[in-house]
């Protein structure tokens, strides 16, 4: 089953500055292969790129000749996590999965394996979707949620809760 949600009904985008921000990291160990432009980070990895924060047990970052970056994060004992601030709002998009794939050129994140994505208003969860694979295209503000076979005999269907957007009170401004 596939469900497509147009940005949970959002009209604001992620922080524009994130695209041009440098990628900074902390980890227990790092292996840098300049020839192949691959950085392998292991142990309590935390990556930041503007308002984007990725946490995982291991992350492999590849950098293209044009400077774009692709990061593949795996969670290990804990799942990999992703968080990004919304432009001009006190809202965040956050997700977690067994594997996370971030592509700076496409401005997209893919969550694979027991994937969950949430929209938070401040610290309150406003919307949440669950599935086997969730792809979020920040440029078009579209989420795609796929179900799939699950361990333990689950149905593999996608699930979600969408909170109505706040609208001005009826008759306000008249």
What this model shows, in words?
The radius of gyration is 17 Å and the shape is globular. The protein has a six-stranded antiparallel barrel with strand order 5-6-9-10-8-7. The chain is mainly beta and 174 residues long. β7 and β8 form a beta hairpin. The protein is built from no helices and 13 strands. The model is unreliable at 4-13 (pLDDT under 50).
Keywords:
about 170 residues, mainly beta, 6-stranded antiparallel barrel, 13 strands, about 0% helix, globular
Average residue pLDDT: 83
First-last Cα distance? 45 Å
Largest sheet: 6 strands, antiparallel, barrel
Proportion of strand residues: over 45%
Helical proportion, percent range: under 10%
Short synopsis of the structure:
0% of the residues lie in helices and 56% in strands.
Task: Describe the protein's topology.
Layout: E1 2-5, E2 24-26, E3 29-33, E4 38-49, E5 52-63, E6 69-74, E7 80-85, E8 91-97, E9 99-103, E10 108-121, E11 124-137, E12 142-146, E13 159-162
Antiparallel strand pairs: 1-12, 2-4, 3-4, 4-5, 5-6, 5-7, 6-9, 7-8, 8-10, 9-10, 10-11, 11-12, 11-13
